[in-house]
Structures are given as C-alpha cells and as structure tokens.
Specification:
The protein has a single domain, classed as Amidase signature (AS) enzymes, CATH 3.90.1300.10. Helices cover 37% and strands 13% of the residues. The chain has 15 helices and 11 strands. Strands 1-3-2-4-6-5-10-11-9-7-8 form an 11-stranded mixed beta sheet, with helices on both faces.
Length: 472
C-alpha cells in the first residue's frame, strides 16, 4: 500500500528510512500485474528497478532532482528513445524511436522513474479508450465502464495506484475527461506552455501535454518540471515558468464566472447539483461568483471536429507504409501498397477522421467548412477574452455524464463526440483547464468539475484546485 499522500511526503519517508524506493517501485510493478485486466499499460519497464538505488542515494545526500523517485507513466504517443512508440495503433506496432520527447526527458532529468507506457485511443482519437489496437482500458472504479479517452490508460493507472503520476495529452478534453471519469486531477496546460517535441501529432494547433495525479501538489510539481520554452518546438512560448508549488496556497479571493451555456439541457442532474454545492462552498469562502455568457459555445463541437480532423488527415499522411511502421505485403503497384498499408494499419475511428478531414479540406468544401470553422474558432477565443476581463476563472462541468458503459456509444460516433461538449472550447481558445474531482453519483461513479483560466495562468487554476484538495 501507499503510505504517503504526495511526493513531498514520499521524499520525507525515504530520507527517514521509513520507505525504500526499491520496495515502492516493486509495489507498483506488482500492482500493475495484479490489475492487468484494466489494460492500462501497453508496455511496462521492469528494468526501472535498476535506477532505485542511485536515486535513493541522491535523495539522501541532497543532490536529487525535483521529481526524484516519483514513479510516472507515459502515454504511448510520446517518444522515449529505444522504447516502443505505437500510439496504440497497428500501423506503429513495431516502431522504436531514436529520440525522447522533451517533456519526458525533463522528467528523466529530474530523477523521475518512468515505469511504462500507457494505453490510449489510437493516435489519441477518442473519448472512451475503446479505439486501441491493444484493446479497451477498463475504469478502475467500475470495470464495466470506460475510463474516458483518449488518455484513459494514464488516468486509470493513477486512479488504480499503478504509478504516482502520469503524462497524458489533451486535444479536446483527453486529459480532463478521463480524469473526471476516474476521479482524479488532470491538467491541460496553456497551448505552448509545454513542448510538443516528441509527441506524435493528432491536431498540431490543439495538442497539449499535461499531468494526472491524485493530488494538486503533484500536478503542480510535474507541471513545473515539464514547462518551459523548447527550441525544438516552434509553438513553444518564451515565457517564465512560475514556482507553482509555492503559490498553491494563495489567499486571494478570485472572481469566478459560471457560463450559462454550460448548465443548460443535457447536463446530468447529479453533476449539476454537485457542482452547485461547490459553488456555494466557494461563496462561503468569500469568492465572487458571477453568471457570464460564452455565446458561441454551441458551435464549439462542430468547429473542433472540422479543424482537428483536417489537421489529422494532414498529420497522418506520413504513415503510408513506405518509410516506417507497418507495411502491407509487397505489391508491384505502389498505390496499392499505400492503400493496403493504411487500410490494414489504421482502425475504424482513424479512418473516419481522416476521411472527414480530407473532405473538409477538399476543393469546393474548404471555404464552406474549414475556413468557416477557423472564423468560429476566433469568435470563441474572443468570447473567452471578454469573459476574462470580468472574471479570473470560469467554472463548468467537465463532462455531461459520469462514466458510461463499455460499448454503450461505439455504434453512435456523434453521441460519443458530444461527450466533449464542455472541454473542446479550452483547446480551441488555447487556454488551460483542470478537472477537479468533487464527489460521486448514486452509482458510486466519480463526478468532475472543470475550471478554466486565461492563457498562462495555471497558478490561479492550481490555487483554486488546492482549496478543494485541502477540504477533502
């Protein structure tokens, strides 16, 4: 069992010889085997035990990095040198990269222990983690239900105590939604806060890398390590990285906005009631609560799926069987080799999104769909800019329902897509958002609440999340 609440306590126990890092890592490895039916991991790095002695020594002599001994799992869309990078797809099943993603390298440099790579929806496209060549991930809270997607393996691994923390990616809610379904914290940083170098692109102007953890302190600690400018990523921002940990316990009373569009028809009543209980709690703590408007919210799903599928169809064109990854049986006809490699290598959801993206970019439809969606994206960003002139934070549901049953929505892609209704707007606007676990429904399923902040204001997000973290 884990006898520490956060990484700070873990370090103290190691220094006092009350916890052996080797035994701690062994616990996680054993727990992964005991819970193999969750299917949270694609690959487990058993040789990570070899690092424990040197890192424990560093902790005791004071030379360790910020994340020394933190056991972290990595979503299998991020490259680690000489380790498999599959994106949970048959088309990359045997691919081994020769480089490491910047965000992962920063974890390694801070003496974190990388325990393995987690399952996800194929190429991070999905909201349930059922679209994986490695099979579906199960929700550790209720194994008949999905963990959310696309970072379902990373969320399940943290929720089931198969690691201390994990990295996921968020293109339209793929960190926040599974965090809500699994009852943990999950942060999507501002676009550009964390380098995307080494991340297999889904939609390049949306993709972000962020952490999962069971507490806010560990979220803040991991974020402080992986953040920062990277010359290898042209979308990385040159901006200061705050000391997120020291600023967690802010006493400032923030102005919080409740967008009426997010509390309309379609929201589960138990989620609605749980959120407004927390709103009342914030009022009693002296926070100013204001109703606001984000008038273009109704167009967010449409704009998101037009733009992301367009970018996906372009990004995934490189997987053609000619250069790397899976190749269909040799064919004298080059075109047939391309067609067969992609047809056999990609799953159905990937093919669906490639076709949608190719369609909206095609001659005659570019202006009607793609260009119009870009204009809507600008309007959505302007909605948030105006809102943040009045408030510091925006509070909403993370998901319209709690975790649904495995197989419940696979036959209806549109219904699955609508599950992202509260999360896609943050990616369209490039702002940060966090899921805060706030309780459970009558079936014992976790309920999540989303808080969003202005660009590069993760400090405020984490400060408010910490209020609930400490009140538990």
């Amino acid at each position: 069992m884990l006898n520490y609440k956060n990484h700070s306590e873990k370090i103290s126990l190691i220094k006092e010889d009350k916890l052996s890092l080797r035994e701690n890592v062994s616990f996680f490895l054993d727990n992964i085997k005991r819970n193999s039916n969750l299917n949270a991991y694609n690959f487990v790095f058993d040789d990570c035990l070899m690092q424990t002695s040197s890192i424990e020594q560093k902790i005791k002599n004071g030379s360790a990095g910020k994340l020394a001994g933190m056991v972290i799992a990595i979503k299998d869309v991020l490259a680690i040198k000489q380790q498999p990078l599959t994106c949970s797809s048959n088309i990359l099943r045997d691919f081994i990269p020769t480089y490491t993603a910047t965000a992962v390298q920063k974890l390694i440099d801070a003496d974190a222990i990388i325990i393995g790579k987690t399952n996800c929806d194929e190429f991070a496209m999905g909201s349930s983690n059922e679209n994986s060549a490695f099979g579906a991930v199960l929700n550790p809270v209720d194994k008949s239900r999905v963990p959310g997607g696309s970072s379902g393996g990373s969320a399940a691994a943290v929720a089931a105590s198969l690691c201390d923390a994990s990295l996921g990616t968020d293109t339209g809610g793929s960190i926040r939604q599974p965090a809500a379904f699994c009852g943990i914290y999950g942060l999507k940083p501002t676009y550009g806060r964390v380098s995307r170098y080494g991340l297999t692109a889904f939609a390049s102007s949306f993709d972000t890398i962020g952490p999962f953890a069971r507490n806010v302190e560990d979220i803040a600690l991991v974020l402080s390590v992986i953040s920062g400018y990277d010359e290898k990523d042209s979308t990385s921002f040159r901006t200061d990285v705050p000391d997120f940990i020291t600023k967690l316990n802010s006493i400032k009373k923030f102005r919080i906005g409740l967008p009426k569009e997010y509390f309309a028809e379609g929201l589960n009543e138990e989620i609605h009631n749980a959120i407004f209980e927390k709103v009342e709690y914030l009022k009693k703590q002296g926070f100013e609560i204001t109703e606001i408007e984000l008038p273009h919210t109704e167009y967010s799903i449409s704009a998101y799926y037009i733009l992301t599928t367009a970018e996906a169809s372009s990004n995934l064109a490189r997987f053609d069987g000619a250069r790397y990854g899976f190749r269909s049986k040799e064919d004298k006809n080059l075109l047939n080799m391309y067609v067969n490699s992609r047809s056999e290598g990609f799953g159905n959801e990937i093919k669906r999104r490639i076709m949608l993206g190719t369609y909206v970019l095609s001659s005659g439809y570019y202006d009607a769909y793609y260009r119009k969606a870009q204009k809507v994206r600008r309007l959505l960003k302007q909605d948030f800019d105006k809102a943040f002139e009045k408030v510091d934070l925006i509070l909403t549901p993370t998901t319209p329902t709690t975790a649904f049953k495995i197989g419940e929505k696979t036959s209806d892609p549109l219904e699955m897509y609508l599950g992202d209704i509260y999360t896609t707007s943050a990616n369209l606007a490039g702002i940060p958002g966090i899921n805060i676990p706030i309780g459970k429904d009558k079936q014992g399923l976790p309920i999540g609440m989303q808080v969003m902040a202005n660009q590069f204001d993760e400090v405020t997000l984490l400060s408010v999340a910490q209020i609930f973290n400490l009140s538990e």
